[in-house]
Amino acid sequence: MVPPVTRDAVLINDLYNVILIFAVIIFVLVEGLLIYSVVKFRRRSADEMPQQIHGSRPLELLWTIAPAIVIAVIFGLSVDTMSRMTARGTLSNPVAHVHAINDVAARQRVERAQPVDLVIEVIGRQWVWQYKYPGGDGVTTNEELVVPANKNIRLDMTAADVIHAWWMPQFGPMIYVNPGEMSYVWFNVPPGDYIGQCNVYCGVAHAKMISKVKALPQAEYDEWYAKQAAASSAATRPGDPEVGRDIFMNSSCIACHYIEGTKAQGRVAPRELTHFASYPTIAQLDGFENNAENLAKWLRDPQAVKPGTAMPNLNLKAQEIEDLVAYLLTLK
Amino acid sequence: MASISIPIPLRERAKSGVLGWLATVDHKKIGIMYMAMSFSFFIAAGLMALLIRLQLAAPNLQVVDPNTYNQLFTMHGSAMIFLFTIPMLVGGFGNYFVPLMIGARDVAFPRLNAFSFWITLGAGLVMLIGFVFGARSDAAWTAYVPYSTKAFSPTIGMDIWLIGIILLGIGSTLGAVNFLVTVYSMRAPGMTAWRIPMFVWAMATTAGMVLLATPVLTAALIMLVADRNFNTQFFTANRVQLWQHMFWFYSHPAVYIMILPAMGIISEIIPVFSRKPLFGLRAVVISTVIIGLLGFTTWVHHMFVSGVDPAIERFFMFTTMVIAVPTGVKMFNWLATLWGGSLNFKTPLLMCIGFLATFVIGGISGVMQGAIPIDQYVHNSYFVVAHFHYVLFGGSVFGIFAALYYWGPKITGRMFDEKLGKLHFWLMMIGFNITFFPMHFLGLQGMPRRIATYDPGRGWELGNLIATIGAFILAFSVLIFIINAIKLRHGEPAGDDPWEGNTLEWSTTSPPPEYNFLEIPTVESDRPLFDARMRTPQI
Description:
The structure holds two protein chains of two kinds. By secondary structure, chain A is of the alpha+beta class. Chain A is built from nine helices and eleven strands. Chain A folds into three domains: 1-36 and 59-88; 95-233, Sandwich (Immunoglobulin-like); 241-328, Sandwich (Immunoglobulin-like). Helices cover 38% and strands 17% of the residues of chain A. Chain B has one domain (28-535): Cytochrome c oxidase-like, subunit I domain (Cytochrome C Oxidase, Chain A, Up-down Bundle), CATH 1.20.210.10. Chain B is 67% helix and 1% strand. Chain B has helices at residues 17-22, 27-56, 66-101, 110-132, 156-185, 198-230, 240-274, 281-294, 310-322, 324-338, 347-370, 372-378, 382-412, 418-444, 461-487, 528-535, and strands at residues 3-4, 520-521. A two-stranded antiparallel ribbon of chain B has the order 1-2. The two termini of chain B are 18 Å apart.
């Protein structure tokens, strides 16, 4: 397993290692008996007739009862692990679902369940995870979630379209994120960069629906957050195509878009972007001329420009839009 | 072996040539057609698997585009399950050998039997032709809503897939009725419950499961077709689990539908090639039936992370683990049958040993995943892919090849080439393990299933490369089998009973006449032919 970083992941890891011991013993026993029989009881002459044994009650009782005991032990260990996963410190009930998005009573139960330092709203959609921070500063991220390290974080998750699953292997358990329902995840992790990806097949770019978590020390997190809050309101400098390119190549854009000679190999969008700047219009929309102003409008909210388009609103910040526009218009 | 005379029923003289096959109601000809159809789909779905493995051989390969990849794994899974494993075991071997093994001249409803086959073939062709001409589903064989609804899968390929599976369900439900009536009412005189051959017990249990489980899947599929085309609202928002419950209520028992007949096959072969009776026959029978019943109580273990109440999950964790007990009983009974025997290492027995050696790994990893905390980690990862291939390839497919080598001489009257058979076995054993064992590690390293590609640096490169190499060894081993099957026409004549068999099919000619037995045999033990050999003085 990948190195566990949460207490739940450690518990799962420990349970796995214990059950693996039983597994290896049973494996060696069965394969050993099989190999021994194959070597020892080879037919030696054509008219050899072995003793006709039809069965043995004591032996059969033995290999009914012994596996039953092993199973009972494994079941007990699993239940014990489950109960410890739901009772440990403040991080109780690591995986929870509420079956209606507007079930107020259930949400209040979740909120009372334990003290949390930060609650982030998460939407899973084809094919990006979107994170919305509290506080009214309009801070959002796509794909990468930035959190303060060693704090209790709760994710309130739902899906915009089909079923997705949020799984960070190093955090331990995964959870389905269903449309029309709420799923909750609690975690508390040391500083570091973590990676996982959507774990329920969700369509053509499923393989590119990556989820990253960057856990920063509180001071660095605060600094990052302040910068985001500022950037989300207004651009602070003119668009830089180099920065735009980095944003493009390191985000979910590449899940759907194709630019020759780059890692953007998605084939969902109907037109490739290799020579984007030479298209007369954006999104094949008549009259929607391809210029910096329209492109910024499009990136800000594609649905508002062309309702029904497959391109989601990526909650891009003003500065990111400036940079992306600068980059995309270099693709002549 | 005593026998009694029942006149051979007057039937239209068997037609020869193509019309003879098209119009036949003979269970043996229908069985052969099932086998030929299933094996063709095995080859097709196997080639799809090779494309899948090529695509994953290294990070960010583009052997096929992601859309095609998703269609490939959808059809690979659907075809391997619905068009190969089930029709091969149930339609093929079940049809051909259940009547022969119980001393009957045909199944209870021969015309219904023909109907089952033709609807199955029709369904397979609908799916295959749709696939070839681009009307393909990409929703995986599980077709989870809402991805499979009109909003997210708008193309006709999804409807064609659904209709194909509905038709297959009708075919196998009718087949199940036929088997149950046949086994219940057409056994040879003297064949009491404990004298029924193990394969027939397994087939009867399987038929019972098909009869109870398939209608639920069929209902779910029809509801989804209605949702997609007639604006019904069965699977709309807040009801994503409804589909999962109905789907897995069939599809978990389906695993046992695919493994019990294979277990029945090796329970026939191991005693013959050990020259010993099956150890603990009654315990094996009872375990088979218990597995059949418990198989209906475990489906929620596919949903441990989809949002089910933890108390309910605990119940299903219990039932899931309990199934290991009757399975373990069978495992040890097979080992005890080998123990102290006189083992004749012909290809059929080798394939059974392949079954035992690999199936145990699938069984163990099944219990591991049954533990909810572990499942919350490995769910939908390559660990699961490894697990079910150890069960369905390590178990069912090794069982299918064991049956082909064991019964092939009865069906064709010719013996397989033993050298090629052994080569096939070893290459398959090696190729299979090289392909699927590394997938356990890939899953534990966090690789999800059903991804069209992956980025470097996650620790998945080596395991995937090894698995791809293994897949080609595996494919090569199947090629050896095909060569062996082609060479069969020049094989040694088999005679009635080349293996010193125990059961009634070996008392008639190879291939058997249309009416199977000139005189209906009577049965005095679970090994009628063994008894007969013991009574006949050796010359």
